[in-house]
């Protein structure tokens, strides 16, 4: 699908226009702290109908999580959920159990693999700390530089998050909004929350909106008189915390309302990929959702003492993943390791918590790895965002070498725009008609 667009973007006059635009995009990213991140030199497209079907399935599966969660909460103490997912009991005071019964404040990125026969969901990343949607803004900058509004009419992810935050603000009687990240994230070279903070300031012009790192969080805001009037958007992950829960204890103790406490640790756990295939949970789901599971989820099982040896023998057919991990850590392609190596890794983390997901063939995606370069094959993972129930996307992560695509290693990122055939044709015509003004603008 992208071959005609890539051919047009690689040809003159577009090629020179993109080379001229690249410094402004790089400055935009660097000014936001994303100095280590690499960007694919132009956007790609995805079929709008296919995108809409995936968006429907992603929303349905998040709702399906809610169905299963409600059954857990109905049939026993809520802490059973932590046990089911192997999560530490220490996070129980920082779980908003009521929020687990709704998707109203769920922020998710569903990781999607393009295959020769369609698309497959390989992970759910559900947390207010997710990122990557900032590349939408990067291609907005690029489009303005080359004179093509290729993102016109597409939802801006920060606006979708802001819809949720401003809605909560107006319902709660707050007088301050804080976007809070962890201090160790300063200067790491990836996107932070500056774009979201700017968006919230524009949406709430008469309200103090602050981006604060936890070590700099003012003590006076942790007093109950101020805390109960403060709405906090959590930007840090559970694994970022290195203070034995000290800051989050004081924050929650102040009475501040936190959008996404650590109930997200339940929704983001990779065990869901297996649970949707297990009859005791699948039986709770409507028939149409079970059909979506069959269509979009590669068959996944929890590794147990009973199936471990069989899975190791058939390891080339599987990807092994630890359920509570992120950033590409604890992911092993069975074909790349011998049985003893995988067995040793399983044992390191203990017998529970590992998943084996059927490996799917990946479609080859060809595009330039950097501005001015020639197209080469890439392994690609797409990210479909579901932000407060609304979908946008898609983020692209691409690697020329490793099939485990990870921006923290060598992957570059980009954006895929949902378009139908007529929209793709018109975009190609615009690319072919780029004039000298765009090439000389920078």
TrEMBL record:
It comes from the Bacteria. This is Circularly permuted ATP-grasp type 2. It comes from Micromonospora peucetia. The lineage of its organism: Bacteria, Bacillati, Actinomycetota, Actinomycetes, Micromonosporales.
